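Protocol step 4 of 6: structure prediction from sequence.
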Amino acid sequence: MTIGTPPPAAGAVREFAMRFTSTPRGARLARRLVSHRLHDWGHPYDGSVNETVTLIAAELTANAVRHGHVPGRDFALRLLVAEAVVRIEVADTRAERRPSSERPCRPGPDEESGRGLLLVAELAGRWGVVPRTGAPGKNVWAELDLVSR
């Protein structure tokens, strides 16, 4: 934990939310801030929770930039850590490009991209896609159970 950051109370929920430019630089910054925040909250950089959630954040933010980008619009990231679950949500403004959480597409063996959601599905305990409330677009979320870690 960072000096000056009090330990969470039992049952407390930690939350971090921020908007980022819908660019590769914005996605990179989001990923780094997720890792830093998790470290500050007691999940060290080299721990499995931090590494797994940071990888999930990298995939979801990269997808928001690549597939959810609308010129002039940002994407939003929200990270929640509760007693037994870490939840990450990434919202973008493109509603018509909605991935299927039931069965992510499998790219061909020679394809250079398209494996991000397969990784998310493998690493997260649960994940899904829902419409954004109060705004156009979608919210892609993933949860990681802390009990088994």
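Step 5 (inspection) to follow. Residues 48-67 form the longest helix (20 residues).
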